[in-house]
Amino acid sequence: RERARAPGSLAQDAQAWESLPSASIDGDLAWDQASRLAYRDGNSGGIFVLQLPCGAVCVKGGACVIGELFSQRLASALGVRTAAVRVVSPDAWAAEDECRRIRAAIQTAAGEDEQLKLQARMKLVRNGSMAVVEFINGCVMMGMPANRLLRQAEGGVPEGTWQQLGRLMAFDMLLNNFDRLPLAWTNEGNLGNVMLGASQGAVVGIDQSIHPISHPDGLRKYLDRVREATVEARDQESNHFEAVKAAVLINTGVELTASEMQTMRNGCLELLGEVVRLVASQELEPLLKAVSADCLGAFRGALGAEEIAQRVVTFCQLVSDVASVVQGVLADAPAEAEGP
């Protein structure tokens, strides 16, 4: 969950930040013209948000890891909206120069805020890859801003919210990404990793990563939970989905209606059905190979490249294992999800 906000945090001026456009993370960004800085703490190093002339852009605190990039690239390939990521590796001269410019921009934009400067020195790894992350200009799925958007917004909930949330949950099961909505896990979830009402989409995932399970018994237990959640999505049952409903209520004060729960299950089933069709058409393996090649290219020349390549193999295996379980539940021709 989000920790207490520090000075210079997004919470202090949330409305002003949310009104900013999102800058493209590609190309030659004007880091030397950064005019404002905020920091959001989090479990994976937090995030620095900088205002540039073309809009806001984020820089991840700590080194970019291969699991985060793989997850974002797979999400894009499957049509699930998550914040885009670009790796800046110090192993290439041009990238090393950009790393220096990013660090200088953060120090300059921090101004007289010594706590922000300290966060930058602590979080930005000197010798590791950095991640430039797309700024998502919505609100986290927590607290009164989320409550207002989901229940009090003029015109009702943004179209597609519950369906897209269901797709995001199904995607998380492929990754064993337990730090969001507690569909296949027994934790409370972290709805701070769901953005709502952004210009990029009604629901956008942030800060996701794939988590392979090396222990055979642990993997078996996880796949059993995936199987149970998939059966619930197919048969409209609610044990696992009730945990999600409870998490939404606790975090936003919104109690989902039967119709909203149905739409969320349909969204989950929709993405799972798409994955099954990829398996049946023998397209999943080439898709995973393409995602892997893209990720390995981003880390080419980085320290530990061989270990990174081995990790990617375990990522693909987990996705394939989950897809196989889902295929067993939905069979060769899963029914199309129907509206509520």
Describe what this molecule looks like in 3D.
The protein folds into two domains: 10-62 and 90-127, no CATH class; 139-330, Phosphatidylinositol 3-/4-kinase, catalytic domain (Phosphatidylinositol 3-kinase Catalytic Subunit, Chain A, Domain 5), CATH 1.10.1070. The protein is 49% helix and 11% strand. The protein has a five-stranded antiparallel β-sheet. A hairpin with a 2-residue loop joins strand 2 (47-52) and strand 3. The protein has eleven helices and eight strands. Helix 2 (66-78) packs across helix 10 (284-298) and helix 9 packs across helix 11. The model is unreliable at 1-9 (pLDDT under 50). It has 340 residues and is α+β, with helices and mostly antiparallel strands. This is Actin-fragmin kinase catalytic domain-containing protein. Residues 29-197 form the Actin-fragmin kinase catalytic domain. InterPro entries: Actin-fragmin_kin_cat_dom, Kinase-like_dom_sf, PI3/4_kinase_cat_sf, Put_AFK.
Radius of gyration, in Å, reads 20 Å
Number of strands: 8
CATH class of the largest domain: Mainly Alpha
Give the overall average pLDDT.
Answer: 87
Query: What is the CATH topology assignment of the largest domain?
Result: Phosphatidylinositol 3-kinase Catalytic Subunit, Chain A, Domain 5
Note the main sheet: 5 strands, antiparallel
H-E string: HEEEHEHHEEHHEEHHHHH
CATH superfamily of the largest domain: Phosphatidylinositol 3-/4-kinase, catalytic domain
